[in-house]
Design a protein that fits this description.
The complex is a heterodimer.
Chain A (H helix, E strand, L loop, with lengths): L1 E8 L2 H5 L21 E8 L1 E6 L6 H9 L6 E6 L2 E5 L4 E2 L7 E4 L11 H6 L7 H14 L15 H13 L5 E5 L7 H18 L2 E6 L2 H7 L2 E6 L2 E6 L1 H5 L3 E2 H6 L4 E11 L4 E8 L2 E8 L8 E6 L5 E3 L10 E12 L4 E7 L1 E7 L1 H6 L7 E6 L4 E5 L3
Chain B lengths: L6 H30 L5 H13 L2 H12 L4 H10 L7 H25 L3 H9 L4 H12 L1 H16 L3 H7 L9 H10 L3 H26 L3
Chain lengths: ~375, ~220
């Protein structure tokens, strides 16, 4: 499943018109991108795509346009071959037929219905025994079965969040839209919902558009980040790249950045543009070069290196620009769904990810001597928050 | 005074009840239209449904008489369908009372529907619900206090209609004479005790209805 979006919506023209034509009560998305109108184009394959930006930059309006709540002036929205909106072909599929799951910023749980009735709300076409089973599974999976009979006003923010999520998933959507779902929730609940979202992402393989203005949420979920500013896209890429540094290390741990070490600055060299660290874990230490920065000698820092950024070689790499070359032995080989994680003890314990083909061709086995190599720029400095 | 004639009161209750049933359906539909849809002439429609509230009842009655009478297309159509004209029947009284009560239902239900969060309706749409189901499962339950209040106001208003009813249904004792008209009749004829009984009953019922309505619309 891939979502393709190209939309344009101006607000200036509407606002000049008679008050009756503005369209909606105060607080609706029209206000959102009032500054300049909205004009964006992007693709979202299965997995998380984060729409990041200040409030009023057009993120919510984008979600509302995709779901059909707001009608763009022009453009095209489709999921795979299925066109939801196309101004040139005069196609505008009604909201109810778009097959999109939407978690609203204020959750929009039906206050007159219980949690379970909220989750069941859209399943009236389903056969009763199927429906019961599915509601049960959904609510069990999100650990909200114990509040099934309670109304939204009698449950906590985190529970309400999960009810909204279960409801959005109840009709097997082709696409999930989440509008700042974690903005009003305490840190601990946030982390547990983030792991729920990651599980849902693995199980369902849907495009998930996630609107937020929190860097930490963006980094912990994001495979892809799209940065909004005043109704335009001003940046895209992997969150950790787009944001640069620093980020909170607890968040980096959630992101799937596998290598996180604390260390101390040993030397700095402005001329070579590097800072040398001695990093350590329980079992050992090693030296790593990172890009030159404002750290003082002796200062303690935390770095993160993504497993995918580390090159693995069976002989010593020579004549490369890579500043970090370490040698060690393979301690474990773990097969994941689409890649293999190789753990290497080279001073400290590193994780690196390779393809299955590479494992065969390089004849990687436990105990074998290998070299790890990576750029200084693959090392991200994290905020020391522990 | 001999035996009290309860017919006018019973007729009034029946007319008001039936008128309320019709007017709530029509009025809530119009209230929804005005609260939720943008269309050309919306404010004009709003003004038009408000008219019965401010027009002299005789003017309203006159319009209805013309509309329902033998010479109008509408009046003839009804007569050929039912074999009976609406004018000078209790059914005519239902229409007169209903039209008088319509603005109250439209205004009250429009306010109640407008206060329902549109996000909830959009959420229902993303869950595959048609416009009718969105209304029935989300908007109506959440606006139910206002809609019930609208119905009670309509009933109170229909119960007390005088001018338009008199014009359309006439004053035929035992046939179209409602309580409000019977009061006028009795006080003209010097049957003050009878008038007083009806006045007190109508006042009490209406007071109770308005009181309940206020409680419903003032929230919590």
């Amino acid at each position: 499943m891939t979502l393709q979006v190209r939309i344009k919506k101006s607000f200036g023209a509407d606002r000049e018109g008679t008050s009756a034509r503005v369209g909606s009560a105060p607080g609706t998305p029209e206000i959102d991108a009032a500054m300049s109108g909205l004009e964006v184009e992007f693709e979202a394959p299965a997995g998380f795509t984060i729409l990041f930006g200040a409030s009023g930059s057009g993120k919510t309006t984008t979600l509302k346009a995709i779901s059909g709540i707001v009608r763009p002036d022009s453009g095209r929205i489709c999921i795979n071959e299925d066109v939801l909106f196309d101004s040139s072909a005069a196609i505008n599929v009604p909201i109810r037929s778009r097959g999109v799951g939407f978690v609203f910023q204020d959750l929009a749980l039906f206050p007159h219905l219980t949690s379970m009735e909220n989750v069941e709300f859209g399943m009236s076409g389903t056969e009763p025994s199927d429906r019961r089973r599915r509601v049960q599974t959904l609510m069990d999976g999100l650990r909200i079965i114990h509040i099934a009979k309670r109304k939204p006003r009698d449950i906590s923010g985190g529970e309400a969040q999960r009810v909204a999520l279960a409801r959005a998933l109840s009709r097997m959507p082709r696409l999930l839209l989440l509008d700042e779902p974690l903005s009003a929730i305490d840190e601990e609940t946030k982390l547990s919902i983030i792991s729920d979202l990651k599980r849902i992402n693995r199980e369902l393989q849907l495009p998930i558009l996630y609107v937020t203005h929190s860097r930490e949420e963006a980094i912990s979920l994001g495979e892809r980040l799209i940065v909004y500013e005043r109704g335009r896209i001003v940046g895209r890429g992997e969150p950790i790249e787009v944001f640069g540094t620093p980020v909170a290390s607890s968040i980096a741990r959630l992101t799937g950045v596998e290598n996180i070490f604390t260390g101390r600055v040993i030397t700095k060299s402005e001329s070579s543009g590097t800072v040398t660290l001695e990093v350590s874990d329980k079992e050992g230490t090693c030296q790593v070069d990172i890009p030159y920065g404002s750290q003082a000698e002796g200062e303690r820092v935390t770095i993160a290196v993504s497993a995918g950024d580390i090159l693995l070689a069976t002989e010593e790499p020579r004549h490369t620009s890579l500043r970090n070359i370490l040698t060690g032995r393979i301690t474990s080989i773990e097969d994941k769904s689409n890649r293999t994680i190789i753990a290497v003890k080279a001073g400290v314990n590193w994780s690196t990810s390779v393809t299955r083909q590479a494992v065969r061709e390089l004849e990687l086995v436990e105990g074998r001597e290998v070299w790890l190599a990576f750029k200084t720029h693959s090392c991200y400095l994290l905020d020391q928050d522990e | 005074m001999s035996e009290i004639d309860w017919f006018p009161l019973v007729l009034s209750l029946r007319v008001a009840l039936i008128a309320t049933a019709f007017v709530v359906v029509l009025g809530v539909a119009l209230g929804w239209l005005l609260a939720r849809k943008r269309f050309f002439g919306r404010e004009f429609l709003d003004a038009a449904v408000t008219l019965p509230l401010v027009l002299p009842p005789t003017v309203l009655g006159y319009y209805l008489l013309v509309l329902l009478g033998r010479r109008s297309f509408f009046g003839r159509a009804i007569e050929s369908l039912t074999g009976q004209s609406l004018v000078f029947t209790w059914r005519g009284a239902v229409i007169a009372a209903g039209v008088g009560a319509l603005p109250l239902v439209v205004k009250t239900s429009r306010t109640a529907i407008a206060s329902v969060d549109t996000n909830l309706e959009d959420a229902a749409r993303t869950l595959g619900q048609s416009e009718w189901r969105v209304f029935r499962r989300v908007t109506m339950p959440l606006a139910s206090r206002g809609i019930v209040a609208a119905g009670m106001l309509a009933f109170a208003r229909a119960l007390g209609d005088f001018g338009a009813t008199l014009m359309v249904a006439g004053n035929i004792p035992g046939k179209t004479q409602t309580a409000a008209i019977a009061i006028f009749d009795a006080s003209q004829a010097g049957r003050d005790n009878y008038a007083l009984v009806l006045v007190l009953i109508l006042s009490a019922v209406t007071l109770l209805l308005v009181y309940t309505t206020n409680k419903l619309t003032s929230g919590k």
